[in-house]
Amino acid sequence: MKKNPKILIAIADNSLQESLKAILNTSYNLILTKSTLQSLDCLKNDKSISLIFLESNPQKKENSDFLKEIKKNYPLIKIILVAKDYSDDLAQKANLEGYCGFLVKPLNAKKILRIVKSVIE
C-alpha cells in the first residue's frame, strides 16, 4: 500500500461527503469536490490520486462521461460508486461499467475501510 494514498471524493451531497471524510480522514489524504468538472481539474493537477468515490446520480449523464474520461486518461485510478438507495439495475450498471466497488447508504465504516484497503493495495 502506498504511504497515505490520495483519495478524491467527488460527491455533491454534503452529508455523504462528510461521512466519507470522517471515515477516511485519519488514514488517507482526501480531496473533496462537488462536481465532475472540479474532479477533472484535480486529476489534471494531481497525478497521485489512487481512488475516486463517485456519487451515483441517475438523472445526470455526466457520471458516465466522467467514468469514460477517467478510463481513457487515468486508467490506473479506481472508482467506487456511492448511491443513496440500492437497486439491482444500479448494481448491475456499476459492475458492467467497471467500477471497482459499489456502496449504498447508510455507510458502514468497517466495510468502507476494508474495500478501500483492498482496492488500493
What would you say this structure looks like, in words?
The protein is α/β, with parallel strands linked by helices. The protein has a single domain, classed as Response regulator (Rossmann fold). The protein contains five helices and five strands, in the order βαβαβαβαβα. A five-stranded parallel sheet has the order 2-1-3-4-5, with helices on both faces. β1, α1 and β2 form a beta-alpha-beta unit. The termini are close together. The mean pLDDT is 87.
Feature tags:
5 strands, 5-stranded parallel sheet, Rossmann fold, alpha/beta, 121 residues, single chain, 5 helices
List the helices and strands and how they pair.
Blueprint: E1 6-10, H1 14-24, E2 29-33, H2 36-45, E3 49-55, H3 62-73, E4 78-83, H4 88-96, E5 101-104, H5 109-120
Parallel strand pairs: 1-2, 1-3, 3-4, 4-5
